[in-house]
Amino acid sequence: MKSGKTVIKSILALTIGSTIAGCSVNPVSPRKQIPEEEIKKESTQKPDIELTSRPLTFKTDMEELAEKIIPDYTLRKIDKSYEGNEELGGRIQKSGTTTSIIYGEIGDKAVRIDEKQAAAKANEWIKTAFKGFDVRQLDDKEPLVSYMRKTMLGDEPEESVIGYRFEYINEYDGVKIQYEGISVMLDDSGIQYGTIEWNEFEKTDAAEHNRLVQKVDFELSKILLANAITKENEKLGFDETEEARMANHVELVFAGIGEEEYIPAWYYEMEDGRTYYVNCIDGQVSTP
Questions:
Q1: At 266, which helix (H) or strand (E)?
Q2: Cβ neighbours of residue 28 under 8 Å, at least 6 residues apart?
């Protein structure tokens, strides 16, 4: 799978890199080449990108994404690592800056506790689970809640909730940092699994330069991705399918798709299982 992703990523870089010419980040400071007034004038112009393939379709209404304010800067990560609290029991595992505590697995019986009770248990556990983490960072955050379900097959299939998952997302200026946060899973018997990846971030030294670069809004990202999917399918010999063009989920995130920087990008999850980033700074399309 890893080699496949590498092939796809290289194809996308070749096919889309030149599409948004005039919008890519130049390693040489533009201030040394042309006056700042001209740069600012050019940065307000929309690149003329043509839809050369079938447009994307969406499972849900994405209208609010058009109103998103795209950050005009990139981020640099400052690594933070947290120790698991051994007094709470469980098996502690560490990988880089990720710390996980494992107690068991979600059972197969329907839970009796409701979502509110489960949230209270998860929040109480988080308060002492990870040494060094300031839980006040969660004060103004609402967790994302998902339900683990089990379906009993029969003449009339029955579905029941067998566990809950609560996720607190790490953000910068209200924009999600991809794959950063705290996740807790639990059922009637208590916490079964918890993990944290919560680093600190700061604007990069290139922030002033990034303000002069064309930002890729949601409408432009749809065109760039649609064209890239066509090129990708042609190169890999894939048949065109409706699933390849249907987006199940789209969001604006900071993604670690550079060497050191976290870059604002549109993250797409497609119906066929493929995922993509559309870089908001230079329009590059890549795969996670």
A1: strand 261-270
A2: none
d(CA 131, CA 211): 38
Three-class SS of 139-181: CCCCCEEEEEEEEECCCCCEEEEEEEEEEEEEEECCEEEEEEE
For the chain, what is the largest distance between any 2 Cα atoms, rounded to a whole number of angstroms? 74
3-state helix vs strand vs coil in the chain, percent to 5: 30, 35, 40
Element (DSSP H or E) covering residue 83 = strand 83-84
**Per-residue pLDDT tens over the stretch 86-140:** 999 999 999 999 999 999 999 999 999 999 999 999 999 999 999 999 999 999 9
**Chain centroid to CA 121: how far?**
27
- What long-range pairs does 122-127 form, CB within 8 A, spacing at least 24? 122/164, 122/166, 122/184, 122/186, 122/191, 123/166, 125/88, 125/184, 125/191, 125/194, 126/168, 126/182, 126/184, 126/194
Label the pairing between strands 285-286 and 98-102. Answer: unpaired
What's the CA gap between 187 and 147, in Å, rounded? 10
Please write the tens of the pLDDT for every residue from 42-75: 344 455 688 888 899 999 888 899 999 999 889 9
Relative to beta strand 144-152, strand 285-286 is: unpaired
pTM higher than the cut 0.70: yes
Cβ-based neighbour number of residue 11 at 10 Å:
19
Q: How far apart are CA 241 and CA 233, in angstroms?
A: 10
Asked if residues 22 and 214 have their Cβ atoms less than 8 Å apart, the reply is yes
- 3-state class (DSSP) for residue 25: coil
Pairing of strands 57-58, 246-255: parallel
